[in-house]
From TrEMBL:
Pfam families: DUF507 (PF04368). This is Competence protein. InterPro entries: DUF507. It comes from Sulfurovum lithotrophicum. It comes from the Bacteria.
Length: 183
């Protein structure tokens, strides 16, 4: 699941909650410090991917005439170019590998800044962080469907893409996250 910029806070909060609830971890500076550190790392990772996406779009734009002449599938070309250039930008394309890498980076940040203390092997702590990513990714599609259906079944019609729709979607999305203990 590809994270969107507005979701990084939710994932970071989930990580903070899961670490705070783990019996073998203490958070000397509190959960909010952990959430802030995790969000910063996730945001930096997404910024790398956005830079890569922009470069790929630029390449496609520069070669638009040739792409049209060859009747090439732009989406497929985008993915192929992105995959080839990903290592150069430090982007991991496989999401499980990416979540694992982010878990390591977050763990390193927590350790170096005395944000987490633990009495177990580092891998156990990293696994808590990794499972937070996986839990969010697994829940996202389900929550998205629930929120979409709630909006669709409302008496008052809300137009997708409008500001009212976006605000309503965000409020309902947060309610569903809260119900699941992810906020």
């Amino acid at each position: 699941m590809r994270l969107k910029p507005q979701q990084t806070g939710y994932v970071a909060t989930k990580i903070g909650i899961d670490l705070a609830n783990a019996p073998f971890i203490t958070l000397p500076k509190g959960r909010e410090a952990v959430v802030e550190a995790a969000k910063k790392i996730i945001d930096e990772n997404l910024a790398k991917e956005r830079a890569l996406d922009e470069k790929v779009k630029h390449i496609l734009d520069e070669n638009y005439d040739e792409i049209e002449f060859q009747h090439a599938d732009e989406r497929q070309l985008f993915f192929m170019i992105k995959k080839k250039m990903a290592p150069e930008y430090g982007v991991i394309m496989n999401y499980d590998d990416r979540f694992n890498d982010l878990a390591h980076l977050i763990l390193d940040e927590l350790y170096e800044n005395y944000l987490a203390e633990y009495t177990v092997n580092e891998n156990q702590v990293k696994n808590v962080i990794f499972k937070s990513f996986k839990a969010f990714a697994d829940a996202f599609d389900e929550i998205d469907d629930i929120v979409y259906n709630k909006i669709r079944n409302m008496e008052k019609e809300v137009i997708p893409g409008s500001q009212d729709y976006e605000l309503l979607y965000e409020r309902l999305y947060q309610e569903e996250l809260a119900k699941r203990g992810m906020l």
